[in-house]
Specification:
CATH superfamily of the largest domain: SecY subunit domain
Strand order of the largest sheet: 4-1-5
Low-confidence stretches: 438-443
Distance between the termini: 31 Å
Mean pLDDT: 79
Helix content: 55-70%
Order of helices and strands: HHHHHHHHHHHEEEEHHHHHEHHH
Number of domains: 2
Structural class: mainly alpha
């Protein structure tokens, strides 16, 4: 405990780090305040009577927005349109030669891609806002949450306000990245997810304590949740170290190179992207049905994450997307060329194409178990719900929410530790260092 208090004092004593933390907390406070401001024309009292029963893609959007989706808030769509636009632009930089060239232009190319991403975010937000208006009208038809006198202006005002709200959240995310602590977009998503944790925790505790003898079941659930979190940390940080030697070079009286290092190949290079892609693909029919989650048959199956058919289809799609996305972002040929240019080689493997083939074969071998584990983490919420965990609390047992939380927390702690070590303070751990995901991309989460 004394060590922990001293670490907090060290963190607070660094002026730059203190400023970053305070700025980030201020932006988060503004975001959470906006999440409780209801859209014009909505009666918040009647809106609360509609309940909180969204599942599938709607539950995912509501989780990412911290409950703002079900509350008909001005931040109801949250940061999701920006994430969708970022994913699309990232794919374009891989598939379209023009965007590939733009990405290689350095800072100027990155600014152009970011500007295109913002334009695309506006378009995506307008489309999603229009569908959200239809969803609200259908959901509140009986409850009358939309005020009758405002019904004629509701569509236009809602689309404008939701678009402005999403752009403001996107701006806050960029400001947190520039002046705050951690990746702003990922941090906003994590805060939205964590905002639902206390309520979900209390609901689960209440459900288990009202019946005699089930409090022990609740304790077992918490222990399992901690074990799952530890497993997710291993999945995120797991790497296969490939030994790399560098040839010795003598320049004057000094010797360079000759050291043996390792090339870390991540077991889960794709991050959380396969899960997001899989959910987006599976729930496309629901989106075209104007967020109709009350349908029967196929639509009902793909909006219920505890359904066996959903879990089976979902697992197959996640595994497929893991291989596809890894192939898009991981280039063994480029790695082999970089090793060759820096006089590096893998022992027993010839430089050039043989090295690329060797790295590619290793990546294929470790990607398969990584994809299986990622799919298993993705269906854990459905398994937990089938075993008796309440619907809201089950979302914290795996899936996108848990992976994002673990990854963002690791990244943020890594940045804090880096700031401490730069000023010759002790790190956050007695032994070793915290390893994040080593990515700053918003869409990597």
């Amino acid at each position: 405990m004394k060590k922990f208090i001293q670490t907090l004092k060290n963190i607070w004593s660094i002026e730059e780090l203190r400023g970053k933390i305070l700025f980030t907390m201020m932006m988060i406070a503004i975001y959470r305040l906006g999440a409780h401001i209801v859209l014009p024309g909505i009666n918040p009292n009647k809106m609360s009577e509609t309940g909180d029963s969204n599942t599938g893609i709607l539950g995912l959007i509501d989780a990412f927005s911290g409950g703002a989706f079900n509350q008909a808030s001005i931040f109801a769509l949250g940061i999701m349109p920006y994430i969708s636009a970022s994913i699309f632009m990232q794919l374009m930089t891989v598939l379209v030669p023009r965007f590939q060239k733009m990405q290689k232009e350095g800072e100027s190319g990155r600014k152009k891609i970011n500007q295109y991403t913002r334009y695309l975010t506006v378009i995506v937000t307008i489309l999603q806002a229009s569908a959200y208006v239809t969803y609200l009208q259908g959901m509140t038809q009986q409850s009358g949450a939309i005020m009758a006198g405002y019904a004629g202006f509701f569509w236009l005002s809602t689309v404008v306000v939701l678009t402005a709200g999403t752009m403001f959240v996107m701006w806050m995310g960029e400001k947190i990245t520039d002046k705050g602590l951690g990746n702003g977009t990922s941090l906003i998503i994590m805060i939205g997810i964590l905002a639902r944790l206390p309520q979900s925790f209390l609901q689960e505790l209440s459900a288990k304590s009202v019946r005699n003898g089930l409090i022990l079941v609740f304790i077992v659930e918490i222990a399992i949740l901690i074990a799952i979190i530890m497993g997710c940390i291993l999945l995120i940080q797991g790497v296969r170290k490939v030994p790399v030697n560098y040839a010795k070079q003598i320049v004057g009286n000094r010797q360079f190179g000759g050291a043996r290092q390792f090339l870390p190949l991540k077991v889960n290079s794709a991050g959380v992207m396969p899960i997001i892609f899989a959910q987006a693909i599976i729930f496309i029919p629901t989106i075209f049905a104007n967020y109709d989650t009350q349908a029967s048959g196929f639509l009902r199956a793909i909006t219920d994450h505890s359904n066996v058919w959903y879990m089976l289809i979902y697992s197959v799609v996640v595994i497929g997307f893991t291989f596809l996305y890894t192939a898009l972002i991981f280039n063994p040929k480029q790695i082999a060329d970089n090793l060759k240019q820096n006089n590096g080689f893998i022992p027993g493997v010839k430089p050039g194409q043989p090295t690329a083939d060797y790295i590619g074969s290793i990546m294929d071998k470790i990607t398969f178990p990584g994809a299986i584990l990622l799919a298993f983490v993705g269906i854990l919420p459905g398994i937990a719900e089938r075993l008796g965990v309440t619907q809201q609390f089950s979302t914290f047992f795996g899936g996108t929410s848990l992976l994002i939380m673990v990854g963002v927390i690791l990244d943020t702690l890594q940045q804090i530790e880096t700031q401490l070590l730069m000023r010759q303070y002790d790190g956050l751990m007695k032994s070793g260092r915290i390893q994040g995901r080593q990515t700053t991309s918003a869409v990597q989460m």
